[in-house]
Amino acid sequence: MGSQRSAVIMFLCFMGCGPKTVVRDRNSYEFEVNQYHKWITSQAAHIRSFVGSHCKCVGDKFESEECEKATDLVLTVEARAGWHRDMSLWNAGITTEEPSQVPPVIPALSCPIPTPPQTGRG
User: Fold this and answer.
1) Model pLDDT, residue 117
2) β-bridge mates for residue 61, sequence order
3) pTM
């Protein structure tokens, strides 16, 4: 019993000391990250179009809470989706260029919806 307990304790002590292990295939993970990025940015573009054509302003505010939420989503995705994709790929060791540790600033919510940023990144 004592030797079994010692073996279990030794096993538990060294569980986290193994070499770095990739759980997912590198190509599959990169494809998934890029596909999720494509889906969310594509949907944000559709939501932006909907907000622009269906949401009304009262001063610099939206008339409805739904339009505010939709605009907040669009602004967040446009500002940060590329950064999150790049950080995910870097954290997985797929890319070597480390993204900024500080995420991009999300523009303030205002009506009409601000123009999208021109980042040159997909």
Assistant:
1) 77
2) 58
3) 0.74
pLDDT tier, 31 (very low <50, low <70, confident <90, very high otherwise): very high
Single-letter amino acid code for the residue at 100 = S
d(CA 66, CA 51): 10
- Residue indicated by tokens 């919510």: 109
Distances from the Cα of 95 to the Cαs of 39, 80, 81, 122, in angstroms?
A: 21, 18, 16, 16
3-state secondary structure of 62: strand
Phi, psi (deg, nearest 5) at residue 7? -65, -40
Token pair listed for 117: 């940023």
Gyration radius (Cα) of the chain, Å: 22
Measured distance CA(33)–CA(70) in Å, rounded: 23
Distance CA 78, CA 45 (A): 9
